[in-house]
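Honest question from a wet-lab person: if I give you the sequences of every part of a complex, can you actually get the arrangement of the whole thing, not just the pieces? Trying it with mine:
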Amino acid sequence: MDYDYDLIVIGAGPGGSMAAKTAAEEGLDVLLIEKRQEIGAPVRCAEGVSREALEEFFEIEKSWIAREVVGAVIYGPDGSSIKMAARMAGNEVGFVLERKIFDRALARMAAKAGAEVVVKTTATSMKRINDGIEVELKRMGESYKLRTKLVIGADGIESRVGKWAGIDTTLKIGEIESCIQYLMAGIDFDPDYTHFWLGNCYAPGGYIWLFPKGDGVANVGIGVLPTKTREGPKHHLDAFIKERYPDGEIIEIVAGGVPVSGGLESAVADNVMLVGDAARHADPMTGGGIANAIKGGYFAGKVAKEAVEAENFSREFLKRYDELWKGDFGETLRKNKIIQKKILKMDDETLAKLIRSVSGYDLEQISLRRLMIELIKKNPRILWDLRDLFM
Amino acid sequence: MDAGKDSEGRLVIDRYKCAYCGACIAVCKYDANLLIETFVWVDEEKCTLCKACAKTCPMRAIEVVEKR
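Yes, you can. This is the full assembly:
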C-alpha cells in the first residue's frame, strides 16, 4: 500500500506540535493539520506552566512568556491563605504564557523539523484500510483523502479522533470543569504570585484563579463542576469580580471545558494515539494541561518512529505510548484524581480549617508532597484515607 | 423521530453567546454535535435532549426550546 505520510497529527496545540516536531526530527514524513485558520487562537487556557515543564524540552524564548511569578497564594473560604514558592508548587506555577505566541512558535518548530503544516483544514472522518488509515480532510471547500500509517489525535476537548478509532472519550458532566476567564486590565494584585481562591462560596467544584500577565493585567478565571452548580461559571466569576475588581476592564473573554476525569485507561487504538486534552491528560486537581500535553506529544512522536521502523501499527505495539505516559505523569493523574474527589466532598468549613492548619508554615522550603503530609498529620480525621498516597 | 421527543422541543444554540469552545462536544455521548471551526452543528436525529451539553456550556448558550 502506498502512503502519503507516515504520520498525520490532527490539532496544532502544544501536544500536536510537539508530536509533529518529535516525529519529524526522527525522520518521519509528517503532516500537521489545524482546523482553525489561526494557530493559537482563540485561547482556551489560563496559560500557567512551570519553568521546568518548558526547560525539559525547549530553549525558552522571552516572547512566549507574559510574566514570571515566584510562587502561588492559595486563599481559603474564610480568607486565610498559604503562600508557596513556584518550584514547590507543581506543574502550573512559574510562567504565565502568551499562548498565541507560544503555540505558533511550537508549530514553527515542527515545520522547521520537516513537518508539513496546514491550517483551516479539518479531518472529517477516518477509516482503516489494510494496515494503514485513510483520513478524509476538508480544506477551504476542497475534500480530499490521505493515506497514512499513523494518526496522532491532538484534537482537544472536542476530540473526534478517539471516537473514530473506537476509544470512548465522552466525559460525564462530573468529569469536566466548565470554565470562563477574563483578561482584565486596571486591577490591583501582587504580580509576583499566581492567586487561587478555593471553596464552594467562590467556585462550586472548582476554583477561581488570577494569573498575572503584566502591570495591572491578569487572566482572572473560574472553573466549576456542572454537577455542583445550576449556574454557569460566568455567574460565579461575575459575583467575585463585582466584589474585588469592580473597576477592572474586561479586554478578552476565554471559555472552555477542562477534562478532569484523570486520563483515559488507554490512549491508543490500531494506528492511533491520543495526546493532551484529547487523551484527557489534564491534571484533575489543578486543571493544568500544557505540561502533560507536551510530554505526551513527545512520547507519541517517539513511539511513532518506533512503530514505523518496526512496520507495526497495531494497538498492541502502540501500547508503548501508554506505558511511557503512565510511567511519567500517569501516577500523578491517578493520585490527584483521588485528592480532587476528596476535596469535592469537603464543605467550606472543613476546607478553611485545613488551610488554616498550615498557614503558618514556611512554604518557601516545603514541597507539595511535604505539605500534604503535614496536612494529613495535622488533620488525621479528615484526611486519613489519603495517607497511603503520600506517606 | 418519535412523537414524544418531537413534542419536547429541540436544541437551540445562541450564536451571540457561543464561544465555540467545544465543551458541549466532549460531554455528548450520542455524538450528536460537531464543532466546525467556530460553528456548533447539532444532529437533531441523534440528539436525545439529555441537556448534558446545556449544563456544561460555560457561556450558557444552549437551550431546549419547545417545538412549534
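Two things worth pointing out. The first helix of chain B runs from residue 3 to 8. The domain at 3-65 of chain B is CATH 3.30.70.20 (Alpha-Beta Plaits).
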